[in-house]
Amino acid sequence: MQRYVQQLIEDIHKARTIVKPPSAVWDNADTENECDMEDMVYVEQFIYGAKEPMHEITGIETELLPPPNKLNKEEKEKLTIELEALLEHHNFVPDFPIKFPLADRYQFLLEIWDDLFVEVSFGIIHIEFCTYDEEFCPFPGYCNTCKEIAAQMEADEKGSEQSDDNEIIMPF
What spatial distance separates the first Cα and last Cα of the chain, rounded to whole Å? Predict the structure, then answer.
């Protein structure tokens, strides 16, 4: 399997050398204006963007990616690094907890390889794996996002209750 993984990594490197021209929606964009850039990314993605499977966007067919049970930890880590770099080349960033092991990320990347996405010419599209439901957390032991969101929602609710109780009535 080691030789196959090395050949696959070479194919991923080749796929990262392909640069697609920006979509036509960018022809009249003011790329010096950060707000315009954000707006154009939105327009490109949600108005003019066509959804495609990730394997078509990246040029690496799903069938080329070995099942995790056929790889050792080192091979999964190497492939994860390369696949994440390939995704970044296409303006996608998979969102994993900082300390989530590289080898464990491979399965998540494999699972999205046939999912539909809109590729954008600029900006970043985050790929989220979190369900924001602590009961179904895909990263148990590595993520506190659900707890942080719950705490923030509780604080927001308390804040709105306090502001209701302390409502100031202006005399005019």
Answer: 79
| Residue 116, CA distances (Å) to 97, 121, 125, 169 in order | 23, 16, 13, 52
Q: Which domain holds residue 148?
A: 131-166
Asked whether residue 81 falls in the same domain as residue 33, the answer is yes
Residue range 39-97, pLDDT digits in tens: 666 666 656 667 899 999 999 999 999 999 999 999 999 999 999 999 999 999 999 99
Using a cut of 0.70, tell me whether the model's pTM lies above it. Answer: yes
Report the alpha-carbon distance of residue 151 to residue 169 in Å, rounded: 30
The verdict on 135 and 115 lying in the same domain is no
Structural domain count of the chain: 2
Using only the alpha carbons of the chain, give its radius of gyration: 21
152-165 pLDDT tens trace: 888 888 876 655 55
Name the phi and psi angles at 167, rounded to 5. -60, 130
Do residue 50 and residue 105 come from a single domain? yes
